[in-house]
């Protein structure tokens, strides 16, 4: 299983970024996918989850609801996180992760840094 995130960077408050996560080594279509993040000095925080298959159904943390949108392209084995109206508190290392068979996730990528600052 390999998960490789990209698309992070530095952006001003109110700006947007789109993160991508390229997956390989498993049948991507069969798994739910997660985005989680870790802010400096804090623990991991769940951000979003998208269901397996056509991705019908997604969930978001209250802190990002209405600002972030998760999507997937099964033909490209890629999951995305569109982040709009970014805030300084969104600054974190963002990871994508594969859904586990017992809930939660079982594999995680190396992460991509998002910094929101003026």
Please describe what this structure looks like.
Helix content is 0%, strand content 52%. It is mainly beta and 118 residues long. The strands form two sheets. Strands 2, 4, 5, 6, 9, 10 and 11 form a seven-stranded mixed β-sheet that branches. Strands 1-3-8-7 form a four-stranded antiparallel β-sheet, with no helix packed on it. Strand 4 and strand 5 form a beta hairpin. It is globular and about 40 Å long. The N and C termini lie far apart (37 Å). The model has no long low-confidence stretch (mean pLDDT 96).
Structural class: mainly beta
Overall radius of gyration: 13 Å
Strand content: over 45%
Tell me the overall shape.
Answer: globular
Unreliable sequence segments: none
Essential attributes:
single chain, 118 residues, mainly beta, seven-stranded mixed beta sheet, 0% helix
A few lines on this structure:
The chain is 0% helix and 52% strand. The protein has strands spanning 2-6, 9-11, 17-24, 33-38, 44-50, 58-60, 68-73, 78-83, 92-99, 105-108, 112-116.
SSE layout:
Blueprint: E1 2-6, E2 9-11, E3 17-24, E4 33-38, E5 44-50, E6 58-60, E7 68-73, E8 78-83, E9 92-99, E10 105-108, E11 112-116
Parallel strand pairs: 2-11
Antiparallel strand pairs: 1-3, 3-8, 4-5, 4-9, 5-6, 7-8, 9-10, 9-11
